[in-house]
Amino acid sequence: MKSILQKILATLARETIRRYKPIIIGITGSVGKTSTREAVFAVLSKKYRVRQAEKNYNNEIGFPLATLGISHHGRNVFAWIFVLIRTLIRMIFRNQPYPEILVLEYGIDRPGDMDYLLSIAKPHIAIVTAIGDIPVHVEFFKDPQELIAEKAKLVRALPGDGTTILSHDDFAVYGMKDKTKARVIAFGTEEHADVKIMNQELRSKKDENGNNVPNGISFKIEHKGNVVPVRLHDTFGTPQVYAAAAAAAAGIALGLNLVEISEALAQFNPPPGRLRLLKGIKSSLILDDTYNAAPESMRLALDTLNALPGERKIAVLGDMLEIGIYSEQAHRAVGDQAAKFVDLLFCIGPRAKFIAEDARMCGMGHEKVLLFDNSESAGQALDPLIREGDLILVKGSQSMRMEKAVEEIMAHPEKAAELLVRQDAHWRNKK
């Protein structure tokens, strides 16, 4: 059933693209793909009719679903038959306007995955976010270089009149500039970046008790001597700034000016689970980064926890998956980083024991480092330990379900469906 459905969806997606000829923006990388997709959508929607994936649709079935603009119907055969017939009729009679631009994530797990996605939709603009020294999804590749080469196929696939948008601050990513004849726009903090990030700083506001609490990030973007300020609300961390800069580069590539881009980014609201600040119990704050985890994104999340104000810094960290032979090394590095400033460390999962071991080796007392089998039990144990003014980072790989820990300690659990990741029926019923 799945293989048949996959072939049907891929065929429909190819034919839809052939008929409507949208501009396709493809995004790959190991950190920040979804936030970048959301930011690009926010910027380009100011001028164009744009579609992005309804959810994190970036695999062999989800990718054509995003192209076709239809939802996943699980194992419901009749629903699939109905929606496929409706899609075919819509494609034949063109009874609905099709987007001018598709913003798609090209997510890969194994060698050859990028070739399959490119067989469905080749991009006109390719964006490569950060990859890092130990990328996520490296498990089924012989080494990080093989994974990087697979992601670089997105850049190689660009036409000569296309545009590739690369992270200037990631050596492996910026090196992809030599693999294309397309125009290159580099974004980052480095001096020679085409879209340069400057003067990044945290913003704060007074809460109802008169205390200063974090409120977002402000920074400036410079391009060809022109500079505009940008403000992101209720989100934190370098990954969100990079996502905004990549979106600015996409806007520039498609004819928007910096003022239009800045105005659009002011409306950008990163999706749940991407360094979003939530109210916790007992007047604490939760830095919710529960969408997923990779070594680079974990490092950046801990940097954010360290930079933000808080009476105590608490880290609730789950396993990082799909990094294969690098697992122990990567988890120990997290423990080493956390031990330098974290007051209380909760580690969840069999791999996170290496986080705990290294944190203890680096001087954290045993009473400050606790191990748990699952995120729910960690959240329940943390609840009575929270004090007013605590700042709590929660992060781990998707299958660790770290949002369950957040739900245990958030001030308004009744708003979980609105504020947290993986709140649809499929995920809520999944063990």
Q: How are the SSEs ordered, and which strands pair?
A:
Blueprint: H1 2-20, E1 23-28, H2 33-44, E2 50-52, H3 62-68, H4 77-93, E3 101-105, H5 113-120, E4 125-128, H6 144-156, E5 163-167, H7 171-174, E6 183-188, E7 195-206, E8 212-223, E9 226-233, H8 238-253, H9 258-265, E10 276-279, E11 285-289, H10 295-307, E12 313-318, H11 327-339, E13 344-348, H12 353-361, E14 369-372, H13 375-382, E15 391-395, H14 403-409, H15 416-419, H16 425-428
Parallel strand pairs: 1-3, 1-4, 2-3, 4-5, 5-6, 6-7, 11-15, 12-13, 12-15, 13-14
Antiparallel strand pairs: 7-8, 8-9, 10-11
Helix pairs in contact: 1-3, 1-4, 2-8, 2-9, 5-6, 8-9, 10-11, 11-12, 13-14
In words, what does this structure look like?
The chain has 431 residues and is of the alpha/beta class. It has 2 domains: 21-42 and 101-265, Mur-like, catalytic domain (UDP-N-acetylmuramoyl-L-alanine:D-glutamate ligase, 3-Layer(aba) Sandwich), CATH 3.40.1190.10; 276-428, Protein-Tyrosine Phosphatase, Chain A (Alpha-Beta Complex), CATH 3.90.190. Helix content is 38%, strand content 21%. The protein is built from 16 helices and 15 strands. The chain has helices at 2-20, 33-44, 62-68, 77-93, 113-120, 144-156, 171-174, 238-253, 258-265, 295-307, 327-339, 353-361, 375-382, 403-409, 416-419, 425-428, and strands at 23-28, 50-52, 101-105, 125-128, 163-167, 183-188, 195-206, 212-223, 226-233, 276-279, 285-289, 313-318, 344-348, 369-372, 391-395. The strands form 2 sheets. The protein has a 9-stranded mixed beta sheet with strand order 2-3-1-4-5-6-7-8-9, sandwiched between helices. The chain has a 6-stranded mixed beta sheet with strand order 10-11-15-12-13-14, sandwiched between helices. Helix 7 (171-174) links the parallel strand 5 (163-167) and strand 6. The longest helix has 19 residues, at 2-20.
